Amino acid sequence: MKFKDVKGIGILLENYLTYEGYNLWHLNEAGLYNSFLKEPRKRNFFEKKKDTLVRFAINRKRNQRFKRKFVDKEGGDEILMVPYDMSHVNTFLFLFKKLKGVRVIRNDGPSAQITRQRLDANNIPFANLDNFLCENIEEMIVDAGTFLNKQWNLIQSDMDLKKKLGENYGYVMDVLEYCIKTRKMFIETVRNIGLFREIYSREKYKIVLVSDDVNATGRIACLVAKEFNVPSLVIQHGQLQGNPVGEVSASYMALNGESERELLMSEGAEVKKLVVTGQPRFDNIFNNKFDRATSCKELGIDPSKKVVIFTAQRPLTEGDMTRTALDCFLDTVRNIENRDNYEFVLTMREDMSLDDLPKDYKELNLKVLIGGDIHKILASCDVFTTAFSTVAIEAVLLGKPVISVNIGFDEFVDYTGEGVGFRVQDAKDFTPRLEEVLNSEKFSKSFEIARKKFVKNYNCSDDGNSTDRQINLINKIIKGG
Predict the structure, then answer these.
(1) How many CA atoms lie within 13 A of 282 on its CB side?
(2) CB within 8 A of 180, min separation 6: which ones?
(3) What is the CA radius of gyration of the chain?
(4) Cα torsion for 316, 320, 323, 327, to the nearest 10°?
(5) What residues does each domain of the chain span?
(6) What tens digit of pLDDT does each residue of 59-81 get?
(7) Could you tell me if 322 and 348 are in contact, meaning their C-beta atoms sit under 8 angstroms apart?
(8) Cα separation of 118 and 359, whole Å?
(9) In 3-state terms, the chain is what percent helix, strand and coil (to 5)?
């Protein structure tokens, strides 16, 4: 199913799922697409455990505790930052260090505990979105529950809707049942609408910064801000190509490079909202020198060998592209000739664990790194491999060729076409492309030429001033420019 099909379903359901002016399907459509409907044949929602239902019960004691915390709040009252999870904190980090009057409010995303640790480690004061729960939001949640139960019954009895959805009817109904009855995701969405209304009613922020307005939390933060005449800016966090993009809910979007701007325009985004600034996180690459030998020594990697790094990503369930990419890498490690000439390194984010890996990985003599300075790690390698991580773009910026493993997919960055590596869509091609990247003098020469164009397309410039460009944009928006 294509993302435009999922958006079309939202239009069909608009009369059923619009609550207080918001189409609940629309707010969640990107997550529903990625998790359930991109490849509906997997029926992967049946594999999910029933999540803990949203935390509605708000007792008087907690309200009293909340009020004291709000009075003694830390942080500023001019700029609101809403990071989604750990890696989004990294996107904001360089801005936070230079901006004044910043208030950080975090949601319990997929890596809540790691996110908290990252904020604490950088001495960034923050509040949890839950801190703003109050009695009127509790009433709103109860009302939404009654509304959704009624609408679910109406949806089930709508034969015209069944006809319009055609072969997708069963999948869509399973997803709706999950969102309305099992996980109650739509009630959580209503809850978050109420929370951001509470936040904006208590403090008049000059601007709201989000690192993602595709996920429901970021989208709600931007759309509710409009109710209070507060401008918003979404700062590109990850790779846009291959993700459900097109609509920009924020007032403006700060983009890494020209390729992202062209992609969003082709998907129908408002041109006036799109501003190319570069990525502040990438400034670290251009403002520091990363030496391969030093990095290898610090990481315990043998610099005399050909160092190949693979970054694993979630989900790692059977059939997912991220899992097939990992399996392809591990098969190469098992079968490559002259194995002693290579150092194979597997990296993962802090919110992953060794339990996520196939059981036999220990037999392959891999070096496994969880977390750490990703730029130092990249500096140690001769080639970087992954499924589709943004880290691949950072690798190219650091002068490292990339092999992306997109078996069965063609929607992510085409590193073959970009001339800075290869996109492998058949597992048997991985080892030959790896050998070419490592040993071909012709590839090495063409890589250096292609990399210069790649920098402009995916990071605006190599001047290391992306942070300043974004700060200038933020100030311009605040002034009404």
Answers:
(1) 32
(2) 148, 149, 151, 152, 186
(3) 23
(4) 150
(5) 288-459
(6) 333 444 444 344 334 667 899 99
(7) no
(8) 29
(9) 55, 10, 30
* Residue 150 CB neighbours (<10 A): 11
Classified as helix, coil or strand, 157 is: coil
Task: Please tell me the distance from the alpha carbon of residue 94 to that of residue 279, in angstroms, as a whole number.
Answer: 10
Q: In this structure, how many other beta carbons lie within 10 angstroms of the beta carbon of residue 338?
A: 7
Percent of the chain with pLDDT over 70: 90
pTM of structure: 0.87
* Average pLDDT value over all residues in the chain: 88
What is the CATH architecture of 288-459? Answer: 3-Layer(aba) Sandwich (3.40)
How many CA atoms lie within 13 Å of 467's alpha carbon, on the beta-carbon side?
19
| Residue 44 structure tokens | 């992967």
- Tokens representing residue 244 in the block: 């459900």
Q: Alpha-carbon distance 309 to 370, whole Å? A: 13
Structure tokens at 353: 């664990």
Token pair 């969880």: residue? 370
Nearby residues of 217 by Cβ (< 8 Å), 6 or more positions away: 82, 84, 107, 109, 129, 192, 210
Is residue 130 within 8 Å of residue 138, measured between CB atoms? no
Locus of tokens 């993602």: 212
Of 309, 245, 320, the C-alpha closest to 437 is 309
